[in-house]
Design a protein that fits this description.
There is one protein chain. By secondary structure, this protein is mainly alpha-helical. It folds into two domains: about 40 residues; about 60 residues, no CATH class. It contains four helices and two strands. Strands 1-2 form a two-stranded antiparallel ribbon. A hairpin with a 5-residue loop joins strand 1 and strand 2. Helix 1 crosses helix 3. It is rod-shaped, with a radius of gyration of 28 Å.
Length: about 130
């Protein structure tokens, strides 16, 4: 009588993965025709590690290259208009927004400005 035994080899203990190995596993798991479960089986890694590496790769923590932070809210001060003897000039276009950054830079934009484009401009000017 023949008895058949299948031995499934798993590496026990903690393993150290290089950044290149982690990125290759992520490409295998999330690339075209990729499967997290299949990549985990092929590379003998847990799915929790794969998802942690994906989060780290997306934030730049894995490769050490951080994506630029989006602009944060700045303090805004609304001042009362100064009363003068002369009439204040009427703005040429209604719906304009004046922005003064903490660095002293002043911007005037139309109310219909693209918010994403304005955020990128403010991020660059705030440096």
């Amino acid at each position: 009588m023949t008895t058949r035994i299948e031995v499934v080899g798993r590496v026990s203990g903690r393993r150290r993965w290089t950044v290149e190995q982690k990125l290759a596993i992520l490409r295998d798991a999330f690339g075209p025709e990729g499967s997290v479960r299949a990549a985990c089986d092929r590379h003998e890694v847990g799915s929790g590690a794969v998802y942690t590496w994906r989060r780290q790769a997306m934030s730049g923590e894995l490769t050490g290259i951080r994506s630029p932070a989006l602009p944060a809210f700045s303090e805004v001060e609304v001042a009362d208009p100064v009363v003068r003897d002369v009439a204040l000039p009427v703005p040429p276009h209604c719906g304009q927004i004046g922005i003064e950054l903490g660095t002293g830079v002043r911007l005037t934009v139309d109310a219909m400005v693209d918010a994403d484009a304005l955020a990128r401009v403010i991020a660059v000017l705030s440096r």
